[in-house]
Amino acid sequence: MDKTVSDMDVGQDGSQDLGRDGGQDVGQDVGQDGGQDGGQDVGQLWARVRQQLRREFGTAAYNSWVKPMTVDPHADCSVSLGLPTPFMRDWVMTHYADRIRDLWSGSDPRGRTLRFTVNAPETPMLAGTDGGAAATPAGRATGRADGPHAAAAVAAPVPAAPVARGPEPGPAPGPGDEFSATLDPRFTFETFVTGKPNEFAYAAAKRVAESEQVSFNPLFLYGGVGLGKTHLMHAIAHHIREARPHRRVAYLSAEKFMYSFIRALRMQDTISFKEQFRSVDVLMIDDVQFISGKESTQEEFFHTFNSLVDQGRQIVLSADKSPNDLEEIGNRLRSRLAMGLVADLHPTTYELRLGILASKAEQFGVDIPPKVLEFIAHKIVSNGREVEGALTRLVAHAQLVGRPITLETAREVLHDLLRAHDRRLTIDEIQKKVAEHYKVRIADMSSARRSRTVARPRQVAMYLSKQLTQKSLPEIGRKFGGRDHTTVMHAVRRVEELCRTDAAFAEDVDLLRRMLES
Q1: Contact at 8 Å (CB) between 330 and 293?
Q2: Is the whole model's pTM more than 0.85, yes or no?
Q3: Lowest-confidence range among 85-94, 215-224, 393-402?
Q4: Calpha distance 68→134 (Å, rounded)
Q5: Which of 97, 228, 441, 468 is a good FRET partner for 27, with 20 to 30 A between their CA atoms?
Q6: Which domains does the chain have, with CATH numbers?
Q7: What is the mean pLDDT of residues 3-26?
Q8: What DSSP assignment string belongs to 231-268?
Q9: CA 336 to CA 308: how far, in whole Å?
Q10: Taking a C-beta distance cutoff of 8 angstroms, is the pair 237, 208 a contact?
Q11: Any residues with CB less than 8 A from the CB of 75 and at least 6 apart, and which?
């Protein structure tokens, strides 16, 4: 291959417009072996062709597709027009190649053929610049980075550099990328508590994050609110960025994807939008169900999905339902979503909630009595997020007010959460559980027998009925054989007194309470 030229002499600031008079050479420092004439010849020809393309295609199309091209003469009487990515090369081949070849053949007296290629990092290119566009190493996309949704792959302007410059890795996207959401540093694989409900989803996410090759495409995680989908998504992105920082990872919500697309339509800049999302190595979109019923967004996502899969890029998605249950998603897209690995996260079990609480307590560095953790795990059964929130509130209250963390403190601080999750316990259930525990008949709860072996369990049942139900004292009395409310009040006071003086009895009552609350 002949020596190629750089644009280092285009001007001191790299911004001289080569197309103003059609005769300005593109670059002059081309080496010392006679390659200068070919480089100048190609540069002058390309500058004239580009001027004509700008007039014919218009400024928007010109800036998106022609301006990023680099030109490279070869010894075999051919010339390469290089584009930063396969997507851009394919688009130009489909929409503009014929006209570009016609203009070139009419301008080149040597009759050299044109080839459309993707720039490689080890091949320095002659930049036919029209405003400072420089040769672009592979892995770094060329495009407009002045919009609020500029792609993670678009770097800051790079000044012209000598031909001898070696290959550079693409920039590693960070949490502050314009169109990629910020990752929560707490959401890593190390902080994810696994159990039966989520172990399969965790293993699949770990495989995708650690694999050098595309493992499952797409990986589709689904489950209800607060079950760990977003945690796993962030963990995948964190791991890939740390282990392979050269890979471009884009993580965002489906809502942001849609708004970015709508904005691109309004700005008549859909080309930049397509390039942003189709040039990443890993595309991760949270809450895919958001695009249900939004046909134009689904259509664009469908084509983005296919483009990335065809290029062997990884896709990770999450939703609140399985692909087959996303009713307002078109059949074509729904089929694509289900073609990889679908992993669901089930509602939490008591054991998993207890594990989440223990892990969170360890992160806080606070010694919390096991009974308190068990109490919260039993009482708040919706999802891991609410369980964590309850413990956070309890710890914050204890530290700010200076109170020890006890069962009573937990009941007081979390009373609204406990009430929202409270299963409506009945007096009949309490009587049955107490009778089983003390090995007496249920009928004894409402009988007139007054022996201690019967009276004491009856008093405990009355006490627990007062503590665990919303029933009034007269209502409780009626369930115990029509007894007066003062009898119930006496039973409550007697049990409270025994709990203060008899540790074994207090443990017994506490055990019954926990059994009933679970």
Answers
A1: no
A2: no
A3: 85-94
A4: 8
A5: 97
A6: 1-135 (3.30.300.180), 199-345 (3.40.50.300), 350-421 (1.10.8.60), 427-517 (1.10.1750.10)
A7: 35
A8: HHHHHHHHHHHHH-TTS-EEEEEHHHHHHHHHHHHHTT
A9: 12
A10: no
A11: 1, 2
Query: Which runs of E-coded beta strand occur in 258-312?
Result: 282-286
Task: Provide mean pLDDT across the span 171-188.
Answer: 63
Residue range 136-165, pLDDT digits in tens: 333 333 333 333 333 333 333 333 333 333
How far, in Å, CA of 170 to CA of 241, rounded?
13
228 a known binding residue?
A: yes
CB-neighbour burial class of residue 449 (10 A; exposed 0-12, middle 13-18, buried 19+): middle
User: Which residues have CB under 8 Å from 176's CB, separation 6+?
Assistant: 182
The band of 457, judged by pLDDT with boundaries at 50, 70 and 90, is very high
Following CA atoms 140, 143, 144, 150 in sequence, which dihedral angle do they give, to the nearest 10 degrees? -50
The identity of residue 472, as a single letter, is S
What is the rounded distance in angstroms from the CA atom of residue 370 to the CA atom of residue 373? Answer: 5
Among the listed residues 30, 49, 134, 165, the one whose alpha carbon sits nearest the alpha carbon of residue 97: 49
Q: Is 226 annotated as a binding-site member?
A: yes
Name residues whose C-beta falls within 8 Å of residue 311's C-beta, 6 or more positions apart in sequence.
86, 278
**Which phi-psi region, left, alpha or beta, contains residue 11 (left: φ > 0; alpha: ψ -120 to 50)?**
left
Separation between Cα atoms, residue 130 and residue 51, nearest integer Å: 9
* Residue 171 DSSP class: P
| Separate counts of helices (H) and strands (E) for the chain | 20, 8
Q: How far apart are CA 383 and CA 385, in angstroms?
A: 6
Across the strands, what pairs with 219?
A: 316, 341
